[in-house]
Amino acid sequence: YFCPRWGQTVSPPQSDQLKAPFDRDYDLFFPLFSGIAEDDNLQSMLVGAVMRKIKSRTWKKQRYFKLEDDCMTIWYKSKKAGNAHSTFSVSDVEAIREGHQSEVLLSIADEFPAERCFTMVFRGRRANLDLVAESAEEAESWIRGMRKLIENLENMGEREKLDQWIWDWFKKADKNNDGRMNFKEVQNLLKMMNVDMNEQHAHRLFTMADKSQSGTLEDDEFVLFYKMLTQREDVLRVFQRYSADGQKLSLSDLDHFLREEQLVGDNVQQYAKQLIELYEPSDRAKLLNAMTFDGFLMYLGSAEGSIFSPQRRGVYQDMSQPLCHYFISSSHNTYLMEDQLRGQSSVEGYIRALKRGCRCVEVDCWDGANGEPIVYHGHTFTSKILFKDVVSAVGKYAFKVSDYPVILSIENHCSVEQQRVMAQHLNHILGDKLLKSTLDGKAPIRLPSPEVSCAVHGPPNPASFSIVPAGFVAKRRLSKELSDCVVYCKSVRFNSFKHARIHSKVYEVASFTEYKARKHLREAGTEFVLHNSRQLTRVYPSGFRTDSSNFGPQEMWNAGCQIVALNFQTAGEGMDLNDGLFSQNGRCGYVLKPSFMREVEKTFDPEMPQKLDGYNPVMLNIQVISGQQLPKVNIKEDSIVDPLVRVEIHGVPTDQAKQETRYIDNNGFNPVWYDTLRFTIHTPDLAMVRFVVEDYDKTSKNDFVGQYTLPLTCMQQGYRHIYLLSKDGTSIPPSSLFVHIRITGLK
């Protein structure tokens, strides 16, 4: 097979132990940016440029930046730092913003023109990189070049991501940059990759791969070494169980596998043909309507073979029901980047939340200097930002990832005079995006749907999707101008469920601290669920959480609470569950509640789900088979992960459970468990499943390695890969788990 990076043909090894079924191809296509020679922007980046790195109005320092030859790494250094330098991967960069699109660059707008400025936005919670180029042309080259590289990465399949990961390790191990590795470098590479292998076996593989007998591994030889290292015996076992001749899966074999294991029900043979066409690399096998082991492995590693059902990724739910029938992705103290005592306030908090699909953001407003309202956490040392800058950011980013309405939760501490300024900014900056009246011009008797709200001004048009102010107002006299901005979400004091049932209007919203909501759930769970079938409820973290930690949102979802506001800036279990729930339905920020939480004639008590009419419990069986290329968590060179997998069920109280596999000694590269975990789930429609990988430590708390969370209703059955996420919720390719899932009814 032709290896495009080096222009060499890669041949399979000859050892009988390494022969794979049916014409297996030992190819490894290291990523190469196509058309690099013709791309002037990338050529300019390869040469490099001196740019100013800006941290504040007073911190502006020159750095030399260049794109390395792999077209995947940005290298930079200070002129005064001697040989010291830093690097970051293009894959770490989420987006490029041109001009004065950050608070830092806005602060120096009078010094440097917008056409020379741009911002690199990193994934997760890493701070942005603000840069000023020496010329507008140079800035344009970097902006266009980076966007092209990011687009190239986003279009990569799982196989290409794996190849990139291998190439990154090759570069790390090749200490003297001569394009080859001696045995000592290979030993160091194995430790870096979480592989604990005895020296004799490692040397045997090294010798087998060293076909030139040069004592080093060069390009194609390293490919062979990696292939030998990553033999998937677990997948091969499944392949050979269903292969009639042990060499390939015929169309009939694949059909059998898809029916028996993956539980594909309709048009199975047609689906099998599609899989062969999509994932089979061998033209010879395609002609025979067959799938080789390589094709089988590629299918299982694809989106089709992942644990998350592709049918649940896009918008698949009914979006025409009233807002109170949906769980709504919601943020608390959205302006904060850190804790709520001394943390930084920034419009970046709104941008990041909205780009994660958040549909309800919070704005704490206070009187500011020069008649301009400000946003910050009152009576603390958190920094302050202008209300109008927040509104501008919301207006710009509200509908980048979702077409559905955004709710502005406004906590108002402003004087009447500055409330009028707030109203002016809302109307002037948001314009037609701001919902200013009921949809039919009459007093509301029913909350609007997400679908109707986003099409209120004509055909769905991104310029006219609705931003809905919500009046979560403090004890201040309210100006008419600001009051007129609140249409469907008026904050009211909650008295009791009985009082609300008799007196409340559909547009009134109750707001509870986590403790108050928990008390209502404990004392009157059924009534709480019923209340939330008619009206919106907002739940927010206790003021005692000064570290901006989160409560568990699941118990609030169990009561049907729609606006469960979390600190998006704080990683952990709470945000994992939130990201998991809203990863379905197109990541649009709205998830339709189960029917028993929407219908007023139904009675559902989260404490006693078995009393529900239509009670339908299930048994969830998860066989944790293996892990692949788990990230190293300890910076010590000799440290290797001892991984275990914990599966957690989050749902109604009777469903809350967790079980663990054994831990595997010194193997984070390809650990194998074959451990089966079993759970009884009483309310499947509310259950979330969280897979957590940890590095076992018998003397201290286990270290976090990775996690993946999804709704039970979005799980595919059969043999599936789970691609792990970091603590920040970002992907860490190619780290994955291989599992077998089976869900069976208990009635």
TrEMBL record:
Gene Ontology terms: cellular component: endoplasmic reticulum; nucleus; plasma membrane
Major enzyme class: hydrolase
Topology relative to the membrane: Peripheral membrane protein
Keywords (A to Z) from UniProt: Calcium, Cytoplasm, Endoplasmic reticulum, Hydrolase, Lipid degradation, Lipid metabolism, Membrane, Metal-binding, Nucleus, Repeat, Transducer
Residues in PH domain copies: 43-151
EC number(s) on file: 3.1.4.11
SUPFAM superfamilies for this protein: C2 domain (Calcium/lipid-binding domain, CaLB) (SSF49562), EF-hand (SSF47473), PH domain-like (SSF50729), PLC-like phosphodiesterases (SSF51695)
Alphabetical list of InterPro entries matching this protein: C2_dom, C2_domain_sf, EF-hand-dom_pair, EF_Hand_1_Ca_BS, EF_hand_dom, PH-like_dom_sf, PH_domain, PI-PLC_fam
Catalytic activity: a 1,2-diacyl-sn-glycero-3-phospho-(1D-myo-inositol-4,5-bisphosphate) + H2O = 1D-myo-inositol 1,4,5-trisphosphate + a 1,2-diacyl-sn-glycerol + H(+); a 1,2-diacyl-sn-glycero-3-phospho-(1D-myo-inositol) + H2O = 1D-myo-inositol 1-phosphate + a 1,2-diacyl-sn-glycerol + H(+)
Cofactor entry: Ca(2+)
Domain PI-PLC Y-box: 482-598
PROSITE patterns referenced in this protein's UniProt entry, alphabetically: C2 (PS50004), EF_HAND_1 (PS00018), EF_HAND_2 (PS50222), PH_DOMAIN (PS50003), PIPLC_X_DOMAIN (PS50007), PIPLC_Y_DOMAIN (PS50008)
GO molecular function list: calcium ion binding; phosphatidylinositol-4,5-bisphosphate phospholipase C activity
Residue ranges of domain C2 in the record: 598-726
Entry superkingdom: Eukaryota
Main subcellular localisation: cytoplasm
Domain EF-hand: 161-196, 197-232
GO biological process assignments: intracellular signal transduction; lipid catabolic process
Record localization: Cytoplasm; Endoplasmic reticulum; Membrane; Nucleus
Protein name according to UniProt: Phosphoinositide phospholipase C
Species the sequence originates in: Scophthalmus maximus (Turbot)
